[in-house]
Amino acid sequence: MARYLGKEMTRVDGIAKVTGKAKYTAEFQVPHVAYGFIVLSTVAKGRITAIDAREAENAAGVVRVFTHLNAGRLGKAPAASAPPQWSWPLQSDRVFFNGQPIALVVAETYEQARHAARLVKATYQTEPHVTELQTVLGRAMPIPQNTLPRGDPAGALKSAEVKVEAEYHIPINHHNPMEPHAAIAFWEGENLTIFDKTQNVYGVQKHLAEGLAVPAENIRVVSPFVGGAFGSSLKPNYYPSLTAMAARELRRPVKVVFTRTQMFTGHGYRPQTIQKVALGADRSGKLQAIVQEAFHNTSSFEAFSDNTTGFLKQVYACANLDMPLKVAATDLPTPTWMRAPGAVSGMFALESAMDELSYALKIDPLQLRLINYAEVDPVSGKPFSSKALRECYRLGAEKFGWKNRNPEPRSMRDGKLLVGWGMASSVWGAMQMPASAKVTYRADGTASVASATSDIGPGTYTVMTMIAAEFLGLRMDQVKFELGDTRQPQAPAQGGSWTTSSVGSAVRGAALTITAKLLDLANREAASPLSGIAAENVEMLDGRLRSKSDPSRAVDIAEVMRRTGTNEITEVFNSTPSPEREKYASLAHGAQFVEVKVDPDLGTMRVTRVIEITACGKILNPLASHSQEIGGVVWGIGMALEEATEVDHRTGRFMTANLQHYHVPVNADIHAIETIFVEEDDTIVNPLGVKGMGELGMVGIPAAIANAVYHATGKRIRDLPITPEKLL
Fold it and tell me: Locate the Aldehyde oxidase/xanthine dehydrogenase a/b hammerhead domain: which residues (predicted)?
């Protein structure tokens, strides 16, 4: 019987977080630190013809003003013939987007740096820019891995008895984590230490080694706590290299913290998408063809793709399918991954179109999904390692009361309010990446565990402590887990919902290796009660090593270690996905049922009830897991009803670059949310049997809300967010 895994555990870092003991990047105290403040361009494209920093340099407390004219070199010097590119800050006079860093003012205090930043004057020679996706669709380039169609989609669509065709739009969305991005850098000779808000310390180390031309082993990146990131810190952002360069030039520590507005051009965003969907079916509801053409924007200097239709090909059993993705360059900063990247945007279009098809066929939306249920992976033909989506549908419909739904739009009311019920499905990968962890078990019955993963909020500290305590037979308070430092064993970025499966498998592996070593030590005694038992048949529990089948056969671990002169045992374990996984397709699935209430006079709406059912393998910590899923639902509500980054295409500038104008859900927007797990026993996906859930919880929500809004009002809103003026 598991002691911890599968049980509700409060956060091991919870007290540190609420008492302020947990240090976020900008809170580290470094003596003699100088403060940097970034100056941003005010044009979208062109050249800086002059930059006047004299007044800023003469302002009180200013140490130096860095511009492209005097900044230290970052990255390789561009080849003379090469077209100008933007990959490192302050390296040329070229401007590639509005809000690009053009100067860094460093001063003795933050206030002095900020004041002087306003005194830097730049003049530009502008060039025509384009920031509107619609105008560059003709120049969109296909993403290679997304090109192969299945069957004959065009032919099947032509001959299908029932067709729906529609176009869906999603605006740019921005991550707005609580903690602003920040870095503190200091050099000791040739060695750099940098505190950075990142989801991948090793990624930042590699990036800085390239940019600063120093060996990676000379760079230590530290990031113990991250106050939310959701993808905004997956790729190295431009400010760590800028901060490290300034610290090297000035020979003193430098600290740079983004303002909320600087975050809007400093770390990427969910790209704008336009999707053209055509579904063809026979009268019984069986899909004959799916054609989903997706476009999204990227920057002029980097071809980023969020894989909009990647997972969608695996959702429904349909012999004829084409889901090309094309990206088009705009004069904006590069987009990046944002919670449930690609999948939530793609599923908004696909699941809205499925709802439209259900009305065209007069078939219940849930029934339509069951008719097209994929029993095996439609892409590879491989069986699923586990798939409990059918059970998610059944349980959700029952809990929600779906059978009482009158399918007719505008037919259900609560007083004068229109009531709508909508549903959708969600899908995400069940991925495992190579990862390593170090476990030290001491004779006094304590253990320390380390891996250079990150904790952007889902509870990595807690779940890794649970896994170590479980397999070492210790109490939670006897285990200390540390993360977020390049001095620790390498782990993948925290993204893609793969941390528990990857790093957790490494922690488990190290603990089991220690168990086997202790068994060897115990069996050095001829009279050992454990002699002849294989390592996989013993377990550690409360300071004893015992036989799983006969717990009376046991030894005292401290006694064995004392007798063999062993103070501690340290094991670094590298975990990789098993070859067995290759024979299967592995995905996490879910279903969402949503109720909305709409005021027909005002067009205002509330999401009054959400039931989300998730199948993602084994649930290690239900308390944290429900919290993750609720968070996904809340974000889905924000994406559906509120979030939009407005661009002034005349200037190429983000207009809503603050929390006053970029709307996110607040407490009053959130009503009843119930999250339910259907546990899957999956021994193939990884040794812990877990699948990712952090992204999955958001995937179907915007579509389910849009479908509920149609049911309530009879109006099909195909461009997010769904605002009152679109309904009136």
Answer: 19-128
Nearest to 636 by CA among 408, 330, 424, 320: 424
- Give CA–CA dist 649/368, Å, rounded: 41
pLDDT tens, position by position, 205-242: 999 999 999 999 999 999 999 999 999 999 999 999 99
Q: Residue 333 has which token pair?
A: 């900063």
Catalytic position from the list 470, 539, 643, 695: 695
549/160 Cα distance (integer angstroms): 60
pLDDT digit string, tens, across residues 264-306: 999 999 999 999 999 999 999 999 999 999 999 999 999 999 9
CATH of domain 273-431+582-727: 3.30.365.10
Measure the CA–CA gap between 325 and 142, rounded to whole angstroms.
Answer: 6
Contact 416, 604 (CB under 8 A): no
Q: Distance between CA 521 and CA 81 in Å, rounded? A: 66
3-state secondary structure of 210: helix
d(CA 586, CA 556): 41
Of residues 43, 44, 42, the one with CA closest to residue 329? 44
- Does the annotation mark 695 as catalytic? yes
Q: Report which of 179, 183, 174 is spatially closest to residue 201, judged by C-alpha positions.
A: 183
At the second CATH level, the architecture of 32-128 is Alpha-Beta Complex (3.90)
Collapse the DSSP code of 572 into the 3-class scheme (helix H, G, I; strand E, B; otherwise coil) and give the result.
strand
d(CA 196, CA 207): 13
